[in-house]
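Exercise (ungraded).
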Amino acid sequence: MSDNGHTQSGVLYGMAIDLDKCTGCMACSVACQAENNISFRPDESNKLRSITWMEVYYLDNGAEHPDYRFSYLPRPCMHCNAPHHSPCTFVCPVNATVRDEATGIVGHIYPRCIGCRYCMVACPYHARDFNWWDPAWPEPMEQMLSPKVSTRMRGVVEKCSFCSHRLNAARSKAYLDGLEMSEVTYTPACVEACPSQAIAFGNLLDEHSEVARLAKSERAFRLLSKLNTEPKVYYLSRHPWLHNLANASL
Amino acid sequence: MKFGRRAFLQFAAGAVGGTLLSPLPWKLADDSAIWSQNWSWRPSPERGLVSKVPSTCLFCDGGCGIQVHLVNKKNAIYIEGNAANPVNQGGVCPLAASGCQFLYAPYRVSQPLKQTKARGDASGFQPISWEQAIGEVGAALGKMRTSGNSQGLAGISGRPRSSMFHLWRQFFSAYGSPNLFQMPSHADSLELACMLTLGHEATPAFALERASYVLSFGANLLEGWGAPARMQSVFGQWRQERAGIAQPKIVQIEPRLSLTATKADEWIAVKPGTQCALALGIAHVMIKNHLYDDFFMTSQVVGFEDWIDAGGNTRQGFKSLVMQNYAPAQVAEWTGVAAARIEEIAGQFAAQEYAVAIWGEDGGKTPDNIYSDLSFLALNLLKGNMQPGGMVSLVPPVPLEVLPEVQMDQWAYRGLQQPRLDLTQTRQLPLPGNGLYAFLDTINRGGSPYSVEMLMIYEANPVYSLAENRLIKEALGKISSVVTFTSYMDETALQADLILPNHMALERYDDVIGLPGVPYAYYAVSRPVLPPRLQTKHTGDVILALAATIGGTVKGSLPWKNFEAFLQSRVKGLAAAGTGALAGKPGVQPWALQSGQAPKSNYKNPKDLWNKLTSGLCWYGPPVDALQQINTASGKYELACVSLQNRGVNVEDAAVYLPHFAPLTPSGDAQAFPLLMMGYRRLNISSEYLANPPFMTKTLWDFLLKGNDLFVEIHPETAKSLGLKQGDRATLTTPEGEVKVRIRIFAGAHPGTVCVVHGLGHTAYDEYIQDKGININDIIEVQMDPITGMGTVWATRAQLARA
């Protein structure tokens, strides 16, 4: 047992997003949609109904011209590591969303989900979206669906999985290669796509990893850290106003 | 037996209890949950083995290496960057990441279509066979030629940095028409600026990888400028923390707080259209404080000091002109930047060893005012950036095999003798370049000495994406036959008489020759990653088939079996030149090469080079110093454009020879149109040939697009003076027309401007694209540069009123 109340393996996957490098190009968000078969509709401008696992927020410093500045903040699921439970796993009545103690990844099992949306209410990061409609792709776009991720059905909640299917594939390969499971590394789609190399991903417990190093940077902060949800996604910025906004509501 | 109230209640309670104790309700609830989650209409992706095929991205000029993921070798599901490619180093832009949505777009053209009703009527398109399509076009072309009107064929091509453009040029020359044009780009005016100063057509390149100070005059580095993914990657490197090493300083000079501006270290909000004046103001301070290499500026440059023209008259030099006209106090008045600030920037720029000035508003999509290009080049020259190994070099040519000399018969000879149609009304242009606008102008005012019978449009959508697109719409109405070569049913295809669908970018051989603004030589080949989905045909093969149909010298000038063979023949030249190598694994740094320092070749023969290029490796070579291949009459950099003397320019006007601040005035009455409308671009909105894919549209914020309403940005003060509030509906009027928009009050907008995003407002395609927002090209105004005749775009007068 670790000091935060759940069993601890040697692996805790986490992410560090450098907002000084991020250019808001949205490649991460698009790559995520393609990788995870995220459905889309003709009008996606109602953001309360739009499904986006990697949402890119627009933040500004509230100043007047010419001191006004804005920034982007890509927001995947934080995969919260709070004691005993993440906010979403705590409220799920059917164990559809659970944290994998061996990796720290908070998963969501669609066939178990009954669509009560408690988790959406509980999540302080708005990282979860609900399927209000049957997913439908215009003919012939179904041909570009990835067999690695199932499509979701109407009436369930979905969210970022840290591309855990890529972890499974990496583990299968590691098993065949005779490697240690705890040494498996993999790259989620958003990290792979980022053209300015703003996102680092890896094992937070491995002190030699890039992500662990960045998490300790003096530029690092986490969103709503006052809630003690212990997000495993870290942000880096040299701008104090972004640090301050991180503890305001999104 | 009496069934009373009591008995009924007992029975009911028993029934409820009994049912709940039985497994039935739980089983039914569970079944219904499972059933409701397994709707038969929820798609199940096809299962199978996933493989990766490397290729080169063709969605823009950026030349990124990509890997396409295929299921069972036939369904493309995902595009990732190729980590071995030095341009994008494994990253991709959102357009490439959306690439499969173009492959499976519902709006692709599946076979040749012929318009049987009026133009623009989508229901009039009838499918025809390829034999019939090529036969009909070939016959029409043959007839035009033998009736002595080969010059009546005109062409507008997209993708100018490809061998396809060379093939088009070969075809047009052999056929006998001088009227092949390209879609406009900043390269058009840069080529002419280099022609004037260096004596040959080239475009400048910037060693941004090693910059320590970047003075960006409105260059939208992060929004599509140059090679987009290279800029993203360079930016990531700039912002990389390295112990003890300072990060480069980026100073962004532009009226609007763009993404690049907010990400820069400093944003200088100049008045619209005055960046060139600021550059000359900085030059003034550098000259005044003697922050330049005196020996270089006098020994290697013509026109820095006063000079003597061909008539023996003494002419004012750059030094004297700048000292006279661009004192900081004067420049401050034009630009709104305080004089002390100008002095400060000039000091920083001059002090930094690796400082560079870059420019090119509008992401390099439109030509610039030629005097702006010349001024920014002059600032770099003064800084010493053009000296060997300096920060500014030229985009190196790629030594591909030259196409065989065009064989000409009498028709071709006669046709090519005819004047090219980029004539302007008043006079012959001193510097003719890619004069697409001058061509459209000639057609529209009936100024052509011969009739244009057929227009071919390749991989371009000018009816949508050309600024002031009414010009092309009008011109199409005056041309009897329009043939488009496109993969998609876009706005231009809808106006065609015949659509000859090209293979989509992932289905064909193609190439990328050099990268905009990139100092190292670059060549990459795109290969079909999967077989064509539809009955399309490679446009290269169609050109060869048309040449064969016409026969004679046209056929003889295009002797290749197919496009692939043509491309292979070009690569033979590359192999023989031996000036470059292949980048096969991550970590290759072509930008570290010195001029003339060819990397060690790592291919055996042309065949081997071709095999490696088609397996996803790219070719790179050393940079070319700006002054290395100087070709001016004086053998020096001509800061004073001496060669304009021989080009019919009014020699009385001294400033005409020198870089100076010469803004073009937007038309319209400043009283009736008190605002300036300026366009901007974003990397997650495709604004040219390709329409925005649904993946990218999903990433647009609801304060940019809500439903079908587009928001335009205005400054809070401007909003106040117009009585407009956040989210209000308004009518945006320019001399070109009016559109309905909504208001976003944005503190990053310059007072007195209204900023409109490019890339929305399509009328073609499907419900995922159509009618979302407005197309700024419908209401934008193009101003013709008086020296080059090129259509430049910077601002359009506008008015906003509450709707």
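Further reading is listed at the end of the chapter. For now, observe: The first helix of chain A runs from residue 27 to 35. The radius of gyration of chain A is 18 Å.
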